[in-house]
Amino acid sequence: MDINKRAEELVSKMTIEEAAGQLQYNAPAIERLGIPAYNWWNEGIHGLARSGTATVFPQTIGLAAMFDRELVRQVGDVTSSEARAKYNAYQQFGDTDIYKGLTLWAPNINIFRDPRWGRGHETYGEDPYLTSELGCAFIRGIQGEGEYLKAAACVKHFAVHSGPESLRHEFDARVTPKDMEETYLPAFEATVKAGAEGVMGAYNRVNGEPACASEFLMRKLDEWGFDGYFVSDCWAIRDFHEHHRVTANSVESAAMAIKAGCDLNCGCTYAYLLAALDEGLITEKEIRTACVHLMRTRLRLGLFEEHTEFDDTDYLTVSSPEHKALALKCAERSMVLLENNGILPLDEEKLRTIAVIGPNAESIAALEGNYCGTADRYVTFLEGIEDRFKGRVIYAQGCHLYKDRTSGLAQAGDRYAEAMAAAAAADISILCLGLDPTIEGEEGDAGNEFSSGDKADLRLPESQRILIKKIKSVGKPFIVVCAAGSSVNIECEPDGYIHAFYSGSEGGTALAEILFGDISPSGKLPVTFYETADKLPEFTDYSMKNRTYRYAQDNVLYPFGYGLTYTDIQCTGLEYRDSTAFVTVENKGDRKGEDVIQLYIKDCSEYAVPNVSLCGFMRISLEAGEMRVVELPVEGQAFTAVDDKGQRKRFGNHFTLYASTKGAEDRQCSTDIG
Question: How far apart are CA 184 and CA 127, in angstroms?
């Protein structure tokens, strides 16, 4: 019997009360049918989250900076392996609580359209193509390729969701058909067609419809052939009547959601399904259809089988040396070198003393990001440098992350003098600055004074801006290491500048390796770094005008795809034939290094984006002096554009391909097509 028929048969044996009870995230057991209790809510966007010890990888935006499909797939594979290991152990001891199941509500494939959005670091950045490619790779890793799903991936938040956090429960995102098809939907279409088992709706409305009960969005899922389960964001259905005011009460909200096709309620509103049934607002068939979808997923996971290939996954899998080695590899490839006047890599023979200064030097939060597990060991930036450097390391906190003092009894600026003394005593200072998930994150998780986790602007907190000026006045060389999940303008000219994102439990080791030249940096920006938020459209404006590298004008600090290395790898020749780009790449530097070949296309037709679009990428490693020709497939969709009615097709007859290793604005070589 196939999965669908097995699910239908199982649900047919349930009473309507039992079937309705299965549609809440904390589904109770049905002992007479041998169905154990199951909690659907689990997280894993960059490693298994909120379930105790797990491997902590760089936050998703850092994984995106690797521009590496295979490494992202491996992160997904490790995440689901650890989920299986934990699940098996929890089952043995009778624990079916939240964060203990195999349905991971990951990845987050929303487009990071505005750098002020606090949750942007959960995403793969601002580009639909990069997000699609990495999202599909992560799903392949999570779900595996066996007879059963190793774990079930769930793409979120469908759709058109990217802040403001403070308005998300009531906000109506107004989007043109062109922007919808061109920017907001491609990653969802790609991941659904790649087999994502779940889709999670968003809190907001989309052009007037609640995202968790949108006829437009549900129709898109049907068009794409989706046959998994649909889950609401947590307590989003309650927003229908409490904030969106499209229904009068919980009964009507539950009815609206299930009739639209929302199978599972993360929240409690589906407790009113039977009342909706009694009032004639829904049918038994609608309840049972949703339940069939959920049982189908549990069957695909093998949860009702006597034995599956994953049942023997041992608990020693969790945070194993191999998994932590992968976390280190990802951290090494995620950090982006933005400025270097020649001071990096550091010459140990010329250094006796290094000052490590700043509120993120010893911070674990600045490694973790949000939606994270708990590592069995963290290597902070300070510890990584101390472990690696044979000379003297002096540490000074410098300032609070955002407050004007570190001690409540002290005067403002109570740690500046100590930091200046450390900088004066050292040969060079490493300033570890930035943000962390307590002030840049999700509403309810982040507690900054600005806007429920969103940023007010793109500047560092004032306490850190003052610290930079103090250290600069000492007159010694200094390097800035910024831990943040988004675009930041540090407003200074350091001798070197590394954007580390939130680099995971091994971040300190990776940073030290880069600083001292054990490896060459190779991360690339998956988002545009803007000069100022003042030139951006209103945060609540969901049009793409002057947003992201495809539309940005006159406000770019560092372009999408930018990132320096310690060598000089360049694209020196580009040809296109038979749907393939052939790029000649040469390492003109004097050391081995990794870099990312990026392929962009310029469409000159009426409806094309005004700038260029990413249409291919490949991470490579070259020895000093090595030259190689690499092949990058170019999908047919790269030659399409979207008109004002939202129709995607090929409009143009002339295109230009560009290849570069340094981002969307650096065109090292090109070729015309058509």
Answer: 10
**Closest alpha carbon to 66 in 567, 464, 596:** 596
Q: Which domain holds residue 522?
A: 321-558
Question: Do 217 and 339 have their domain in common?
Answer: no
Annotated active-site residue in 233, 239, 436, 454? 233
User: What does residue 34 show for φ and ψ, rounded to 5 degrees?
Assistant: 70, 25
Q: Is 172 a catalytic residue?
A: no
449 Cα distance to chain centroid: 24
pLDDT above 90 (res 596) = yes
CB atoms within 10 A of CB 377: 10
* 104-130 mean pLDDT: 98
pLDDT for 616 beyond 90: yes
Tokens of 114: 């505005």
At 447 the pLDDT is 56
Separation between Cα atoms, residue 638 and residue 661, nearest integer Å = 19
In this structure, what are the phi and psi dihedrals at residue 573, rounded to the nearest 5 degrees? -160, 145
The pLDDT, as a whole number, for residue 255 is 98
The predicted structure's pLDDT at residue 450 = 52
Q: Cβ(437)–Cβ(445) under 8 Å?
A: yes
Average pLDDT, integer, range 95-100? 98
- DSSP assignment, residue 220? H
The span from the CA of 359 to the CA of 361, in Å, is: 6
**Assign residue 459 a region: left if phi > 0, alpha if psi is -120 to 50, beta otherwise?**
beta
Of 46, 57, 40, nearest to 152 (Cα)?
A: 40
- Token pair belonging to 151: 């774990």
CB atoms inside a 10 Å sphere around CB 342:
6
- Round to whole Å and give the CA distance between 650 and 299: 41
Are 329 and 376 members of one domain? yes
Domain boundary among 558, 578, 600: 558
Cα distances (angstroms) measured from residue 409 to each of 234, 249, 412, 414: 41, 50, 9, 10
Mean pLDDT of the chain: 97
pLDDT of 444: 81
**Shared domain check, 206 and 79:** yes
Q: Please, which residues have CB within 8 angstroms of residue 89's CB and are 6 or more apart in sequence?
A: 315
Report in angstroms the alpha-carbon separations of 167 from 172, 201, 487, 545.
Answer: 9, 16, 22, 21
Q: What is the mean pLDDT of residues 414-421?
A: 98
CATH number at residue 78: 3.20.20.300
Q: Are residues 514 and 607 in the same domain?
A: no
Q: Are residues 177 and 31 in the same domain?
A: yes
Residues 306 and 325 in one domain: no
Q: Kindly list the strands in the beta sheet with 209-210, ordered across the sheet, starting from the edge strand earlier in the chain.
A: 172-173, 205-206, 209-210
The single-letter DSSP state of residue 80 is H
Whether 252 and 132 share a structural domain: yes
Amino acid (one-letter) located at 181: E
Number of structural domains found in the chain: 3
Contact 390, 351 (CB under 8 A): no
586 contacts: CB under 8 Å, gap ≥ 6: 569, 570, 572, 622, 626, 627, 628
Q: Are residues 510 and 613 in the same domain?
A: no
Query: For residue 109, which of 126, 123, 98 has the smallest C-alpha distance?
Result: 123
For residue 203, CA distances in Å to 266, 455, 493, 502, 653 come to 12, 20, 41, 26, 41
Rg over alpha carbons for the chain, rounded to the nearest Å, is 25
Residue 441 lies in a domain: yes
pLDDT for 346 = 98
